[in-house]
Specification:
This protein has about 450 residues and is α+β, with helices and mostly antiparallel strands. Helix 11 packs antiparallel against helix 12. The two termini are about 30 Å apart. It has helices at about 5-10, 25-30, 50-60, 110-120, 135-140, 150, 180-185, 220-230, 275-285, 300-305, 330-340, 390-405, 425-430, 430-440; strands at about 15-20, 40-45, 65-70, 85-90, 95-100, 105, 125, 160-165, 170-175, 195-200, 205, 210-215, 240-245, 260-270, 290-300, 315-325, 350-355, 375-385. The protein is globular, with a radius of gyration of 21 Å.
């Protein structure tokens, strides 16, 4: 975008319009994953829906594709692209709670930390992510797996409506009654259909939870995994828990001599009565000798932010993902062979349950294409030193190759990496043909293509 067009756009928006040569440009083009180094044609820091509309129309006139940045956590760097217009929604953080109706409107630049801060004041929450700095937009549009999934479903299962700026600059509200085809596609189809400037969610009563992390020796991982696999199938739905591999960070509750050791862990969130927590958690926590534990009553937002310090902006990121229906002995052996080889304290592997309330929803009710899976596994390679990229990427790829025979075809789009762009059909699963038809209706020119892209149907 040349200076003249940028100047015209600046006269139409209240936010900043930043192009190459501007002293703000290098900082504005940075994203969460430091591996991503791209040079967009223009970055628009939007302040509201009106700015988004003006920017989309300007991109249309200039023939630019649009990359949408919400929380900015996209591992493949979907929030930026060479030669594109970046719509940065990071200043759009308004949240309005209706405690009587148990609903909330939140703008597209909100993180789950912003969201939880606002809803917790009313003793309410909905399914969000594991890290509070994750954006609500990307997480919800791709699925939304978190601590509350077993009780309340995926984030997208709690989405009631969305304000969307389409590729031609028009703005519509998608819901079960208005543009229902678009509403279906938004719930699992990623950022393919427009810019969601406002999300309306259903909320649930959640105040103090019993949560935290329990570490076990790596040698005990098979026992911990088997206990987890057997119990999570029938555990009360108020229990959210996942298995993890983690290098012990230097925290006070971990014995100093164990700092830096690869351990396995159970991370738990119990939203039921505190008096029942010990009994409910026992099948998981009694599965092996405990090395260290930080577990107790806390506000739900505190658990959602508990691991933020391990994943600051500016790390190198390379992830792989798989949906899983069962954990046979051979799969557990694969995890044992690769999990303890974590390359850095920032790296982790999580096996999230997506059963319970998530399985109450019909497979075709939303665009989330792997509703029948029991788990979503993520091998999250994260480290600070780019000199380690080759070796650490190799660890992620070899780990994924080892578990792939015991996984479904396709993975969770929120956990993909840049080299997974060609797997859209597999990752969207059964929903892909229908998504292509809806894409052709709302974005025939594929303006919103910097994502896990759905190709418009011919």
């Amino acid at each position: 975008m040349d200076d003249k067009l940028a100047g015209e756009l600046q006269s139409q928006v209240r936010g900043e319009v930043i192009v190459g040569g501007d002293k703000r440009y290098d900082e504005a083009r940075k994203v969460y994953n430091a591996m991503i180094d791209r040079r967009p044609a223009v970055i628009v820091r939007c302040t509201g829906t009106a700015d988004v509309i003006a920017a989309v129309k300007a991109a249309h006139g200039a023939g630019l594709g649009i990359a949408v940045r919400g929380g900015g956590h996209s591992v493949p760097g979907f929030g930026t692209a060479d030669g594109a217009m970046v719509l940065d929604l990071g200043r759009m953080k308004g949240v309005r709670v209706d405690p009587k109706a148990k609903t909330v409107w939140a703008e597209g630049g909100c993180t789950w930390g912003d969201f939880n801060h606002a809803t917790a004041a009313f003793g309410l929450a909905t399914t969000g992510g594991i890290i509070s700095t994750t954006g609500i937009g990307g997480l919800t549009l791709g699925g939304g797996i978190g601590y509350l999934t077993r009780g309340f479903g995926l984030s997208l299962d709690n989405l009631l409506s969305a304000d969307v700026v389409l590729a031609d600059g028009s703005c519509v509200t998608a819901s079960a009654r208005s543009h229902p085809d678009l509403f279906w596609a938004l719930r699992g189809g990623g950022g393919n259909f427009g810019v969601v400037t406002n999300f309306q969610f259903r909320l649930h009563p959640v105040t103090t939870i019993v949560g935290g992390v329990t570490f076990f020796n790596k040698e005990d991982a098979p026992d911990v995994l088997r206990a987890y696999d057997a119990y999570i199938e029938k555990a009360p739905r108020q229990l959210g828990a996942f298995f993890a591999w983690q290098i012990a960070p230097p925290l006070p509750f971990i014995p100093a001599e164990r700092h830096g050791d690869p351990l396995c862990a159970i991370v738990a969130c119990w939203t039921g009565p505190e008096s029942k927590a010990k009994k409910v958690l026992a099948p998981l926590l009694d599965s092996a000798k405990i090395v260290a534990q930080m577990l107790g009553p806390m506000p739900y937002p505190a658990l959602n932010a508990a691991f933020d310090g391990l994943v600051p902006p500016g790390l190198q990121h390379y992830w792989k993902t798989a949906f899983v229906q069962e954990l046979p002995d051979a799969a557990i052996e694969a995890h044992m062979a690769h999990g303890p080889k974590l390359p850095a304290v920032n790296s982790t592997v999580h096996i999230y349950p997506i059963n319970g309330a998530a399985h109450d929803v019909r497979p075709d009710a939303t665009a989330f294409g792997h509703r029948d899976a029991k788990y979503a596994t993520v091998i999250a390679g994260m480290w600070p030193d780019p000199a380690q990229n080759e070796a650490n990427i190799r660890w992620v790829r070899e780990y994924f190759k080892a578990i792939e025979p015991y996984s479904q075809k396709g993975g969770y789009i929120n956990f993909t990496s840049e080299d997974d762009k060609g797997k859209a059909a597999e990752n969207f699963g059964r929903s892909y043909p229908r998504l292509r038809r809806i894409k052709a209706k709302y974005d025939k020119g594929n303006v919103f293509r910097y994502n896990q892209n759905v190709a418009p149907a011919a």
